[in-house]
Amino acid sequence: MALSFAPLRAAAAVVLLAASLALQAQPSARVARIGLLISGSLESPETKVSLDAVRQGLRDHAYVEGQNIAVEYRSANGNIERLPALASELVRSKVDLIVAIATPAGRAARAATATIPIVAMAMGDPVGDGLVASLSRPGGNLTGTTFLGPALVPKHLALLKEALPRGSRIAVLWHPGAFSDSTMREMREETEAAARTLRMQLRFAEMRRPEELEQAFATMIREQPDALLVFPSTMLYSQRARIVALAAKHRLPSVFNSREAAELGGFMSYGTSLPELLRRAGTYVDRIFSGAQPAELPVEQPTKFEFVINLATANALGIAVPQSLLLKADQIIR
């Protein structure tokens, strides 16, 4: 008697169909969506340093863009007045978390949402700017890191005085919108108090947008300053190459809060590593995606500060750097 395989084939087809339907019914692995808000241009080499640091921090915790996370980028292209609208765009796009680089982006994100978690990196004074209740217990939907930039400015003046004992006229390049009004006022007042103690005269030149840099320098040079002090600011940080070049053109010794400026030819820098702070974004993102609340994640402060002297720049400017200052340096660029 001939055997018929038709019933077996039919049964197998039913099993395969059921398995296919079951697979289709299973939810695919969800890709987390991160909004990244930044003041500078995404195409500039200076901004790419910051973005690479954030991406590396995410990779350190197995978050890879295009694989298990998607990143929505919003860049103000140097105009921080655009940040609030860009932050609102990210909120409307329903991202799961916002990474905001520096204080202006953090303030814009915080104003745009009270529910989406925000990781704000390299903030100046998060308590003074009203972004968190305290460093140990932020208390809202925002946490991150601070680079303590505003608190270090008097130290920059003291370093200039030691390097240039006869220098008394100091040009100050500052960005009025870098932090909140109260933080900016406090930073100026503390810097002016330090200048009086050191018998220095400060001349402030403001810059609100990148295109105002040349005019700011023209204003400063008219005062015939002995040195340049650059206030902390995410915009000024993004313009560091241009600032260093203009300082060299006008033979003006300069001090910054980032070693990246000294590496480009700035005279001196004192501060923490900003790329390292930005890399810490991965830790915060991972903890929040694992269930932690920003309100309970302390804002991290830097524990290491680097003093860098560019001796090649000093020699080009005819500055004999005191041995006492060279001994304090963590790095001397020759």
Q: Runs with pLDDT <50, length 5+?
A: 1-27
Report the major sheet.
7 strands, mixed
Strand content: 15-25%
Instruction: Kindly name the structural category.
Output: alpha/beta
- Number of distinct helices: 14
Give the overall shape.
Answer: elongated
Radius of gyration: 26 Å
Task: Give average pLDDT, whole number.
Answer: 91
N-to-C SSE string, H for helix and E for strand: HEHEHEHEEHEHEHEHHEHEHHEHHE
Pick out its properties.
334 residues, alpha/beta, five-stranded parallel β-sheet, seven-stranded mixed β-sheet, disordered N terminus, 14 helices
How would you explain this protein's 3D organization?
- By secondary structure, the protein is α/β, with parallel strands linked by helices.
- It is about 45% helix and about 20% strand.
- The protein has helices at about 5-25, 45-60, 85-90, 105-110, 150-165, 180-200, 215-220, 235-240, 240-250, 260-265, 275-280, 280-290, 310-315, 325-330; strands at about 30-40, 70-75, 95-100, 120-125, 140-145, 170-175, 200-205, 225-230, 255, 270, 305-310, 330-334.
- The strands form two sheets. Strands 7-6-8-9-10-11-12 form a seven-stranded mixed β-sheet, sandwiched between helices.
